[in-house]
Specification:
alpha+beta, ATP Synthase, domain 1, 2 domains, 2 helices, globular
């Protein structure tokens, strides 16, 4: 049997997951990456995306996160999300409101750097929307 490690997904509202898992796919700011047991220590920022979790029994769950941080050590992975929800429970109106707010941020940006950051976030949200919500 493959090695398991402790995984926790925490949002400001609640603890969504706390269990032993086989692997976690994380939407890092530099791209998606997979965490397995005995992973090298890493701390990274998250982009809006889908966290895929395979628990110790092999069952898979998916969670939508809207930014945050992940802290990885060889025997655990803790994901601190700005906001998180199970993909099955995603509220279309919430995602659409986040996209509208991001568009406003792009339009209201005072300089090129702020505009570029806001545009990147908007692009990430739009990609996330296409990945988790049916057309």
């Amino acid at each position: 049997m493959a090695d398991v490690f402790k995984f926790e997904l925490v949002s400001p509202e609640r603890l969504l997951v706390s269990e032993d898992v086989l692997e976690v796919v994380v939407p890092g700011q530099e791209g998606y990456f997979t965490v397995l047991a005995q992973h090298a220590p890493v701390m990274a920022t998250l982009q809006p995306g889908v966290v895929e979790v395979k628990n110790a029994s092999g069952a898979e769950e998916r969670y939508c996160v809207f930014g945050g941080f992940v802290d990885i050590v060889p025997d655990s992975c803790t994901l601190l999300a700005e906001s998180a929800v199970n993909v099955k429970d995603v509220d279309r109106a919430d995602v659409e409101q986040r996209i509208a707010d991001a568009r406003d941020d792009v339009n209201d940006a005072k300089d090129d750097d702020s505009r570029a950051k806001a545009q990147t976030y908007l692009d990430q949200l739009t990609t996330l929307q296409g990945a988790i919500l049916p057309a």
